[in-house]
Amino acid sequence: MGHNNIKTALKVEGTELIAVCDLYEGRLERIQKLYGKQVVTTFDYQEILARQDIDAVIIATPDHWHDRISIEALQAGKHVYCEKPMVHKIAEGRAVIEAEKANGKVFMVGSQRVSSVVDEKEYANVKEEDLRTSTKELVAPEGSDAHLAHFIHFFNAIRSNGKVVEDASFGLRACAPALASNKSIYEKKVVEWNPETMELK
Asked: N or C: more exposed end of the chain, with fewer CB within 10 A?
């Protein structure tokens, strides 16, 4: 997913690839082959977070790293695009939400369908509540590129000091039902999730 995200993000005017982190050397070599030797590569994501020439990061790691890297990135003053699911366990979600609020940076979860169903003018007015309660089928305009629309919304929010619908609260509400189902299976008991309080009952 990381390569696809990079490819799409670079279609947005004004974006530049500065550095990439991966634990597999082959992927890092491929990045430099595709985008040039000037792209810094590393096995340590904290090197990327420490760089002053990076404004935003894309987190496309295995799920169990999402919360930790997201929180550290926000604390380092970076805007964050995090692939879904936002967290690996429901209990991790609150800390990501708090980090987003505390640091005032754009945090967006990779939920492309939300961005692709509205145009740029409408997007700023979409409320998460409307998405959760609407009975209207949301359909992307014909010929649209959901992935690109998503990244356009992300970078526009960064540039305008705006907001995104797919923030950390959205991210927790989006992944919690599936995570609660997993918890129910593993613990062999009914697990209830309250989407309003974002807590397990």
From this structure: C
